[in-house]
Amino acid sequence: MKIYLIASLFVAGLATPCWAKEPACNGPEFQAFRTDFESAANANDKTRMVKLIAFPVEYWSAEGKRDVQSGPVKSEAEFLQRYDTLFTPAMRKHLHTAKLLSLPDGRCALSWHDANSEFTFEFRYAPESGFRAIGYEVGAY
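Below the sequence we write its predicted structure tokens.
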């Protein structure tokens, strides 16, 4: 009986992290991540910024000559190669005042409006790495 009890406690101890709740968008974990993300953006630190993004990215909007195109960014190397078009001064300018949103599935977003457009960074929490950017989208407002 004693062995059964010890084994049960051991199994329960292993399973407990699975039941742990993910950090909330308005919690200290995301706030620390946001500070780091904004700091890297304001410093235009490409190397630090790329570490705060979860690759591959399914969608990332970038302005073309006449319109906005959205598509995947497959790797850190691709992001760094296209950095100046994927991470612009206008994006960096609005990050500090962007509105924090809690999205379904535990995702978080930083969003702002400018003229007739809405700009949104989306983030997700991963237990092994913490919060990471998973996309950037521009749409009509």
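Residues 4-12 have pLDDT under 50 and may be disordered.
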